[in-house]
Amino acid sequence: MSESPHIPVLPSEVIDLLKKTESSDPQWFLDGTAGEGGHSKLILQTFPNARLILIDRDAIMLERAKKEILSVIGSLDRVHPFQMNFSEVDKELLDSIECPGLDGALVDLGVSLFHFLHSGRGFTFKNDEPLDMRLEPQVGRKTAADVVNYSTVLHLKKVFWEYGEERWALKVANNIVQSRQKKKFETNTDLVKLVESSIPRKFWPKESHPATRIFQALRIEVNEELLHAEKGIRALSDVLKIGGVLTCISFHSLEDRIVKWTFRDLKTTDQFEILTKKPILPTDTEIRENRASRSAKLRGIQKIEPILNKRWER
Asked: What are the residues whose beta carbons fall under 8 Å from the beta carbon of 42, sequence distance 6 or more?
């Protein structure tokens, strides 16, 4: 199966924010969601003296990112790969590679196009695949099929409404429970057909599949994405150097809301300055060239000397 070339989202905008690090010779960066390695290779090219901590919870994506970096940079000597969730990054990890702190970090909260087109885990609407949706399939966590086959109506409604903002959440949940009494859901196609029959055609969205919000909600539930987003931002903020920059790309309103409010909460500690009063959006040109960027929002925050310390120094 041929694969489309990967295009990183908001590439120049991410680099411009990372360049705001106050270090004259930045030495350490982290890509918390390696994906296809698009942003990683840009960081290594932009900061030729820096090392990069490469993180991804999916072993397949980590290998794909390393392969992409190798093809462009020619070496992995400056790369430290770890298969883990970016929310698990801590000082102990940095100490293990003699990293004194991060000059910059990026978290791209979107799911790679690879997962939709080639993973075979049921993220897509097009191919008939097992209803899995785990980003870490080797981990014995519940699958999307487990969620739809064994959750209560109220839990399904909550998932679809809170994580998918789906107005037909209750009807879809009720229909799922009724349908699974006859036959359990096994594939993504099973769920797609159920959602299509649950939402009146006149209410189908014009620019997306009617099951888009349901699938988004299930993916978030299975992978605990919103929990890891906030936890990860706080974890990375702890290991930033003074003057270091943390950037986050989100792709839907729930993610962006978490990034925005977590940044605001960090600012109240007087140890951080928000670099983006409003999210940075892709240009019309980028959207035309890369449809995957159309809903992207980029925000950045910088660690500063605590204001209390500055007052005492005066």
From this structure: 8, 11, 14, 15
Amino acid at 204: W
Q: Which amino acid is at 139?
A: V
Q: Pick from 187, 186, 209: which is nearest to 199 by CA?
A: 209
Burial of 309 (0-12, 13-18, 19+ CB in 10 A): exposed
Helices (H) and strands (E) in the chain, counts: 14, 7
pLDDT digits (tens, 9 = 90+) for 38-75: 999 999 999 999 999 999 999 989 999 999 999 999 99
* Chain centroid offset of residue 7 CA: 15
CA–CA distance, 56 with 61 (Å, rounded to integer):
7
Rounded distance between C-alpha atoms, residue 1 and residue 85, angstroms: 29
Residue 3, both tokens: 């694969």
What pTM was estimated for this model as a whole?
A: 0.89
Scan for tokens 């099929």, then name that residue.
Answer: 145
- Cβ 40 vs Cβ 105: under 8 Å: no
Give mean pLDDT, residues 29-35.
Answer: 95
